[in-house]
Every structure is written in C-alpha cells, then in structure tokens.
Amino acid sequence: MAERPIVSIAHLSKSYRRGGEDVPVLRDITLDIARGEFIALMGPSGSGKSTLLNLIAGIDKPDAGTLLVDGDDITRLSEAELADWRAAHVGFVFQFYNLMPVLDAFENVELPLMLTALSRRERRARVETALALVGLSDRMEHNPNELSGGQQQRVAIARAIIADPTIIVADEPTGDLDRKSAEDVLALLRRLNGEMGKTIIMVSHDPHAVESAERVMHLEKGELVPDVVPAQAKTPGGFPSARE
Amino acid sequence: MNIPLSYIVRNLWTRRLTTLLTAGGMALVVFVFAAVLMLDAGLRRTLVSTGSPRNAILLRQSSQTEIQSGVYRDQASLVETLPGIARSTSGEPLVSKETVVLIALPKRGTDKPSNVTVRGLPALGLRLRPQVRIVEGRMFRPGSSEIIVGRGIRESYDGVGIGERLRFAGRDWTVVGTFDAGKSGFDSEIWGDVDQMMQAFRRTVYSSMIVELNSASDFDAFAHRIATDQRLTLDVKREPEFYEEQSKSLSQFIRVLGITLSIIFSIGATIGAMITMYAAVSNRTAEIGTLRALGFRRASILAAFLLESVFLSAAGGAAGLVLASFLQAFTVTTMNFQSFSQLAFGFDLTTRIVADALVFSVAMGLVGGFLPSVRAARLEIVDALRAA
Amino acid sequence: MHYLKLVLKNLFRHRLRSALTVTGLVVAILAFGLLQTVVQAWYAGADMASASRLITRNATSLVFPLPIYYRERIKAIDGVKAVAVSNWFGGIYKDQSYGNFFPQFAVDDEVWFDLFPEFRTRPEELLAWKKDQQGAMVGRQLADEHGFKVGDTIPIKGTIFPGVWEFHVDGIFEPRDDATITRQMYFHWDYLNEQMKKLFPKRAEYAGLFVVQIADPGRAAEISQAIDKEFRNSLAETLTETEKAFQLGFVAQTETIVMAVRVVSFVVILIIFAVVANTMAMTARERLSEYATLKALGFDPAFVAALILGESVALTTLGGILGIALTFPVAAAFKSLLSAVFPVFNVAPQTVALQALAALGVGLAAGLLPSIRAARVRIVEGLRYIG
C-alpha cells in the first residue's frame, strides 16, 4: 500500500460495566483499513463487532489503544470535537434506517447539512443530487411511513453520503429487508465503493451481504480471528481489491 | 441550535391527542390567571376613573368612606371660601356638598337585598363629574323627589326604569333618567337632590364635599390650608386617589386569591407537561441517538426538547388568553368591602396582562420541559441507538 | 386475584410517570378541597345562626340606625323573650392591615351573653365585665391571635365613632363548638352612648340593630312581621328577619365571588382530568402490543379494558387519598394565616365526599377512551405495533 491506511487501529480495548463487573468486549484489537476498501465485520452475538464499529465511527470511546482515522487520533478529541468530527467524516447506515418519522425524505437527507454553513439553495442542490444518486428523486416529499423498507434504507444512504464523509459505517444494513431490497441496497453500496471510492465498513450477519465486501474480518469474544477472503472476492465491477 | 424547527413543531402535531390534552390543561390555567388579572384591572379601572385629577374630596377626619363621614354645614361654608377653588362663569365656587347613604335593594333575579349607594348632590355636582352623561331621560329637578340611576344599577336591578318608583326613607322617588359614568364607580349609584335626601334621611350634616380646583397643582396648597385650620377637622384627598384607596381591599383579595390559585393550578399543568415530555424523550430515544451520531451536540438536543415544551405551553397559553378575552363581554357586580355597597365592574384585558400570561405560559413550559430535556441531552449515543 | 396484581404491577412499571401523575392529582384534589372549604367558610356566619334569634334593623339599610327606645317596644311584643342592642363599632386596632382587623360591637351587657349561649363565659369574668363601664369581653380565637389576656387594655381608633378608645379586657369567652366564631370583641353600649352624648349629642341614643330572642322558633315569621308592623309609618321603619336570613344577606352581596370560587374549583378538576387522560392514553398506546398479546392468549376484551380502567382508577384513588389526607393540615395552616377573613375554616364531610367523587370520576373518565381503544385492538395489528 502506497498511502497510509484510512483507519489505523492499534491495541484497542473496550469493556463495559455490567452488574458491578467490568466485562471485556474488545481485547487488544490491531488492524488497518485502506482507503476505498469495503470491509465486512462478522462474528457471533457478543463478539464485539458492533462495538468496534461504534469506536471507529466515533460514537463510543475505547478504554485503551490508538484509533486514527484519516490521520486524526480521535481518542484524543473532546465530546464536542468528536461531534464535529463525525459530522464531517462519518456516514451512518443503520439496520432500522433511523430516519426522523416527522421529516420527509428530502428533509431527512438534508439533516446533516444543518450542521454546516451552507445556504438553503446550496443544501437543496446537494440533497437533490444525493436523492438522484439513490434513485429516489420522485419520492422527495414522502414521509418514511410512506416508503418501503428498501426505499427508507436508500434515503438513509443518501443521508450518509450527503456531507461527503471519509468513511461510511453500516450496522446490519440489510437486516430488516427482503431479498430484493437487500440486493438494491448492496448494489448501491458497491457503487459507492467502486465508482466513488468510498471506504465502507459494514457489520453483517447476512452471508449474501458479506459477498459484496472485498475483505471479511471475524471477531470472536472480542478478538480478531485471521482474515478469510470470500469466494467471490471481486466486486461486480471488476474493481481489484487494494490487497491483491 | 441547528435542529430544524419543523422537526420540533411536527412532533407536536403527530401526537395530536397528547398535545391537545397537555396544551388544554395549560390553557385552563392561563385562562384562570388572565381572568383574575383582568378582573382586578377592571376593578381598578372602574374605581380609578371615578374621579377627576382636578377634584379634591373632603371627609371627616379618619373616615375611610363617605358613608362613615360627616361634614358640618359651617365647616362646609368655611371650605367654600378657601382660595384655589375654581369658579363658574357666574362666580359660584365649584363645590358640591353631598350626602351618601346605602339603601337595600333586591338584585334582579333574587329577593335578597344588596346595599346600593344613594348620593344626594346639588345640580352643580353633575358638572364636577365630566365623565358622566345622561343617556336616557333627564336630570332630576332640584327640590323634587326625582332620581336618576347609573347604568350599572339599570342593568342589575328591577324597578328602576324611567317612570318607575322606588320607595325608601318613607317616600316614593320617581326615576327620571339613566346616566352613563364611563364605567366608573358612579355607574353603580343612584343620584338625587341633596336637600331632599337630607330631609328624607333626617340628616343634618353632609357626608362629603367635592371641590374643583383651578388646577391639579393647586392641591397641595389647598390641602395645607385644610390641615392647618383647627376648625376644619377634615381629611382632603385627590378624588382619583380616594377612589383608588377604595379598591385596595377588594383588589388585594382578588389578586391574592387569584394568583395563589394560578400557581397551584400551574403545578398540575406543569406536571402534565413533564409527563408528556418524558414520554416524548422515551419514545424518541433512537432519534436522539441518531441525531447525536450525525453530529448534533447535547446542547442542541436540550434546546430542541425545551423548545418543544415551550411551543406546547405557549400554544396552550394563547388558547387560554383567547378564551379569557371573551370575558370582556361580562360585568361583575359584587360588594366592595370598603364601601360596603355593590360595585359593578368588568374584565379589562390590557397589553400588560397579555404579556404576563404569555410569560407565565412560557415559564410553565420551561419548568415542565427542563428535566426531560436534560435527560434527553444526557443520553449516551450507544445506549440511545440500542433502543431502536 | 391476578387482575389486581397486574394492575398494581403495571402502575410501578413506569415509576416516574406514575409518581408525577399522582403528585399532580394530590395537588389538584387538595386545591379542590380547599376551594370548597372556602365556599363553606363564606357561610360561617349563617351556620352559626340560631333559629330562635331574629335581627331587627332599619328597613332602608344597615347604614341607618334605630332609636334606642325601640328596644322596650320590641320586648313588649308577644313571643319575644329578650332584646339586646348591638352597634358595629368598626374601629382600627394598630393599623389597617388584614391581620390586625377584628370586629368590635357595642352591646347590651345585661342580656347579651344570655342571648348567645354558644359563647361560654366564666361567671366571675362576666360579672367583672358587667361592672366595668370600659370593659370588654374578648373571644377565644381573638385572644389567642393577639395575645390578649384578662387585665390588658386594648386601644382602638374609632372611624365611625371618632377618637381613641380604650377597653379593658375583663374576660375571654370560649366557643361551644367548631362552628362558633370567637374572633370578635364586645363592649358596653352604655359606654359608647355616654361618649356620644358628650361629643356628638345628635348621634346618641341610637342602636345599630336589635337581636331579638324568641321563645318559639316556629313563630319566627309571624313575630318578625309583628315587629315590623309596630314601626310601620314611624321615623325609622324596621326590617326583621331570622338571624340566618340576615347572615345570608351578607353572603348574597358577594355572591358573585362565591360562585366564581365554585366554578374555579371545578376547573382544577378539569385540568387534572386532562393530565390523567393524557397519561393513560400514552400508556395504553405504548402497551398496545401487550394487550394484543393478551387477547391472542385468550383474555377477552373486557379484561383488557378493565386493566387500563383499573390502572387509571388506582392512580386517582392513590392521589385522592393523599390529597384528602393533606387537606386537613393545609386547611389548618390556611386558617391561621387568613383568620381575619375566614375565622371559621373547617373541612366538612361533604367536601371530603366531593373530593373522593372527583378522584373516582377523573379515574373513570380518563381511562374510558384508552380502555375502549385497547379492547378493540385487532390482535394482528396490535402485535405489529412498535410503540
């Protein structure tokens, strides 16, 4: 790899306090993620995969270790700085979409831009572009309860990319979707990764979803298990993985 | 706070029943609050407008009301000679020597008698009250058993129409006119000729004297003269101040009772707001987590929920005010504690009251919404997201 | 009895919400009870009235006095046992603040306390008072409030009867029961009259009103008319009525205020209804899937409805009991604060009954709509509902 990794983790640990005891969730994790990679994190329940994702996304703080994202040591940031950092660097995709029910598709996608200094017109332009990208231009004024699961997830993805983030984190993005919608969403993610070079870190149970990733990492009881490259390593666009 | 206002407002609209019930409770509280303040303002306006700034009223020393007071004829004559008193074009001093008594009349719709103020005054007395106009019939003729009644009396009592007769002090008195005193205390009085009244009630002394001074600034000199003259054991006050004092007792009663009630009621409504906001936070925990993840600060979350609570209470407050404004169509007649007689007054909605009511509503919203908003702001992102 | 257990357990599930709702209820029921007590207290004078006493006053209005010689003429009327004169003195003690105000009356010392058996006097004190021209008998409540003791001198500044007057406290009279008002002072009418003869002779020999004791309460109307007939077409015509009617006349003059207080007391019930209805509506909506599950398990809709209704009533019952319990100490505090305005301020059994009714009513009404909605929920929809 010529350039530095976009995510660089060294000896990361995290435990939670449960019933008066400290329960370790992540033990001494060390890994690198290169720019433009599409990573999948897998593991049984309680393996710590979601926790790892949360740490990388900056919505939780590790107990020990270093965590560099695009050169910034986010473990050193204050809560307020971390909030600003997330707004600029992270795009979120959740299993249950996490859209605001009272805002329509347009307003949901616009939400992250409220944290910027852009004018109303500038925001409008970007939202329209993002919604066009995910193929929902004709649904801009629909409320989430008027959209199917797949459509809602696509709105969520538009929201995730609107601020041109450094990384996109996805926690079980297809967990609540039917086969067809799941495929649409994955295709979208692959496109974001392939055509637009977005780094995607995804946690998933779904073996079909994992096939879209170029690298799969396994966690078990808080520790990384050696890499496994899935059978179909290449993305449909034939884009070679940086590791090859 | 960069969370869009539409998010805040629409959440109120989505849970319509809850919003309606919570705001409804607040509306009732603000209604009571505004109604009390309006009643007090109406009382004060009625009494304060009873009286001209150029007039002085003289009573026996340490009398609190005209009913208790007695001014001797010789004292009255002495006062008339004092400098500072305005004169008519024909040179008459503008002095009205009056007698004030209470009679018992049954209010319309009941057989229980209430005390009504009867005032005997000379023809000049009308001139000293520029706010009074005869609106029906005519002024009573001096030397006759004719009387005119104020608008408040006309509206609340039977048997006081033009041509009808009232019997008191062993005589029949014929009503010949109705007067409008511009919503002042005089609207609740019956007026007749002073000499006839004094005869009928067997009085040898006047109750009070009303004097018009050349100008309002002549009052101090005039008062000084009265105070230094041994023969004049009289108290003198500016007419508006005298009447303002008459309202103190009832006004205080209304205010204390009303504000105490409003505060107690507001506790109930504020608790309602608190319950609603806690539920809102609880139901939207995942949304809060998402907003925080997206980069919105804790302070923004706090502000957003606080604002939601304030919008709720302000809406309720506005509704309560609108309801209270309809009270302006009503008149209240009750006994003024100090004068011991019936006084008619209305509800007066001033801009000050509107402001007070809105501030009160906003305060309820802030108090009720505070703790829930703090809870929302204090949520940890991962915990909140887990609730999804 | 699993129904009751379910209801109670559900109450404690959301402790904060239940606690807040109950707190609101306590405040509302308490306020309601206090307001109703205020309305009751307004009638204190009328409640104390005796059926065997009449009040004779000037027919024109209370402001006009009656000649003192009427006393003998009234006494001579058939059915009259005794007559006492009473003049409202209306003086100022210390200052014009509410706390320092109390009624003073110039009365017939010979017979006054015979006419008012509800005032308990000590024989030696009564005797001393009758002998002392400047003496005063002070009520127990008044004495306690201002620390008056036998032997004290009370200076009063006259307003209707000008000058500074001094009275010696010769005795303290006790109330027979809760309804008796003892916040006033009585002194000799003769003393007042003597002073008036000296200072304002034209105002002497006049009574404010007469208290007439009759042997047979059943003849009250007849004797009243006989008295008034006696003085018809004379200098001062009289109006005689039962003591109760006289007292109610005062209340009638401030009727508007009493009515307003009554109305406002029901407004507070409306407010708390809104709060509880909101709580129950939210709670029921959040638990829709649970109710659907219960129905799926075989519980019938009535059971589900009863669960919500039961919870609503349980909440308001708890709030109601606490509110009622608090009413008594708070009313006592009010009484000591506002004794000048409400010398009698007792919480009546009817008030407690009304409070209980209000609590129950709010509980039922607030729970009604949510319980119907929950009972009607279709199992399939309910199970899918995610709060």
Distance between the termini of chain A: 10 Å
How far do the termini of chain B sit from each other?
24 Å
What structural category characterises the helix and strand content of chain B?
alpha+beta
Shape of chain B: elongated
What share of the residues of chain A lie within helices? 25-40%
Order of SSEs of chain A: EEEHEEHEHHHEHEHEE
Number of structural units classed as domains of chain A: 1
Please mark out the parts of chain B with pLDDT under 50 across 5 or more consecutive residues, or reply none.
none
User: Helix share of residues of chain B?
Assistant: 40-55%
Structure description:
The complex is a heterotrimer of chains A (244), B (388) and C (387). Chain A is an alpha/beta fold and 244 residues long. Chain A has helices at 49-57, 79-89, 105-110, 120-133, 149-161, 179-194, 207-210; strands at 7-18, 21-33, 38-42, 64-69, 72-73, 90-93, 167-171, 199-203, 215-220, 223-228. In chain A, helix 4 (120-133) packs across helix 5 and helix 5 (149-161) runs parallel beside helix 6. Chain B is α+β, with helices and mostly antiparallel strands and 388 residues long. In chain B, the strands form 2 sheets. In chain B, strands 1, 2, 3, 4, 5, 6, 7, 8, 9 and 10 form a 10-stranded mixed sheet that branches. A two-stranded antiparallel ribbon of chain B has the order 11-12. In chain B, a hairpin with a 4-residue loop joins strand 11 (331-336) and strand 12. In chain B, helix 2 packs antiparallel against helix 8, helix 2 crosses helix 10 and helix 2 (16-48) packs antiparallel against helix 11 (351-378). The relative contact order of chain B is 0.20. In chain C, 56% of the residues lie in helices and 17% in strands. In chain C, strands 1, 3, 4, 5, 6, 7, 8, 9, 11 and 12 form a 10-stranded mixed sheet that branches. A two-stranded antiparallel ribbon of chain C has the order 2-10. In chain C, helix 1 crosses helix 13. Chain C is elongated, with a radius of gyration of 30 Å. The chains are: A alpha/beta (244), B alpha+beta (388), C alpha+beta (387). The interface between B and C is large, with 55 and 52 residues.
